[in-house]
Amino acid sequence: MLVENIMRRVSIALLSVLFVAACSDGGGAEVAPVYAANPDSPYAAMLAPCARESGDQRSCRLSQLPLLGMSSPSPDKAAVMARVATTHPWMAQRFSELLDVLPSDILSMMRSVTAIIIGSDVRPSFYWSLTGAIYLDPAGLWLTVEEKRTIDPAPDYRSGFGSGLAYRVINRYVFNNTYAWYGYSLSDESERTLDDIVLPTARLLYHELAHAADFLPPDRMGGFNPTWTVLDATRYIENQGLQLSQALQGSQPLNAQLLFDLAAVNFFGQTPSDAQLALRAEDISAQFAPDGANDDYAYASRFEDVAMLFEELMMAMNFGVERDVAVAPRPAEGEPHIVDWGQRRRITDPHVIERVRLVGERILPDAPISAFLDSYGPPKSLTRGITWNGNLDPDNPSKAWHVDAGEQVIARDEVR
């Protein structure tokens, strides 16, 4: 069903175009059309007009495209696939294959979304509060050369942000003291297997679905009026102080103002000041280590703070995959990163553990979050003055020369 019924897909696309034309005042940005993965879904005709990103996007009413948890309180794979729309059939097929092997808690977390949009022109992945949908970059989904040739190779527009600063905060996921996955190019002839993309896809989904649960928590859906738009529901949750990120910020806030200021440079493209350009890795380490974040992206917004904590927790709990974070001087091109400060398993650091406990227990109240955190073990320090790859085994750091560029790709998402 995912790759057939082409004429039915076209009919649904035409309905979508008519809906947008009727509800917009024109001038929207042109985007590639998307097609429902299941054209027989009762929501198939509404996925594109209600969830596809465009310059004239409107927030649909929950009666038109309800949150998945409003129509399926315990969603299964079929219920999720009924909310998937893609620009190319292989993307829907791949997402379906991944749902067969990903942890079941991902299906449960889909309750907080209206749709999953996978598009050849989506970069970076993001969650959008206007639509209640998550948008996935298919660069993480292709297996064959033919598939990746359908993806727009344009780089993330933020790729140069912060490049003038004298330090970097770097991170990776590891398993048994080696990279848990590796990066692949969109422009070469390399291919990969489904196993190669399970872990990075899980990480991305935990991150995006944490945003969805933050904005539209499942336990509050019973109070949503079907005549509300998605944005109405989002504003209701925020105005009532019911967002998880509000609770985290209110009870256990981050305090490193220097890192908040630098987040504007690194993630939003603000021009750095002379004082910021003069900062060294040691200055950043001194601010980051005693604060409660597990990544500098947490300083971009309270929403990213929640999502970063949750993704690291779930990757450890469900896959035994651990996360490293480090501060290093920005190296010359082709040179390795030399660690100034770093940790593996930062979520069990005394400054962080209660914050991640709050996040995990609020998003997945029935999961054994506390039991896992209490048995996970303390963080491990990375050795200062050793290369990033020389710290792959924190118990046995190596002074050997390791060039570490491009060995793992962890793309930053956005919240809109």
What is the N-to-C order of secondary-structure elements (H for helix, E for strand)? HEHHHEHHEEEHEEHHHHHHHEEHHEE
Order of adjacent strands in the largest pleated sheet: 1-2-3-5-4-11
Rg of Cα set:
21 Å
- Sheet-strand content, in percent, reads 5-15%
Oligomer: single chain
Major β-sheet profile: 6 strands, mixed
Dominant shape: globular
Average predicted confidence as pLDDT: 91
Which stretches are poorly predicted, pLDDT < 50 over at least 5 residues? 1-28
What structural class do helix, strand and pairing data support?
Answer: alpha/beta
Keyword list:
416 residues, five-stranded antiparallel sheet, 38% helix, 10% strand
Describe this structure in words.
- The chain has about 425 residues and is of the alpha/beta class.
- Among the domains are: about 35-155, no CATH class; about 180-185 and about 245-390, no CATH class.
- The chain contains 16 helices and eleven strands.
- The strands form two sheets. Strands 1-2-3-5-4-11 form a six-stranded mixed beta sheet, with helices on both faces. It has a five-stranded antiparallel beta sheet with strand order 7-6-8-9-10.
- β6 (about 165-175) and β7 (about 180) form a beta hairpin.
- α1 (about 5-25) packs across α2 (about 45-50) and α10 (about 245-250) crosses α14.
- The protein is globular and about 60 Å long.
- The protein starts with 5 loop residues before the first helix and ends with a strand.
- The relative contact order is 0.12.
Blueprint (SSEs and pairs):
Elements: H1 6-23, E1 35-36, H2 44-51, H3 68-71, H4 77-81, E2 84-86, H5 89-99, H6 104-109, E3 116-118, E4 126-128, E5 133-136, H7 145-148, E6 167-175, E7 178-179, H8 194-215, H9 230-239, H10 244-251, H11 257-268, H12 274-277, H13 281-288, H14 302-319, E8 322-329, E9 341-344, H15 353-363, H16 369-375, E10 380-381, E11 414-415
Parallel strand pairs: 2-3, 3-5, 4-11
Antiparallel strand pairs: 1-2, 4-5, 6-7, 6-8, 8-9, 9-10
Helix pairs in contact: 1-2, 8-14, 10-14, 14-15
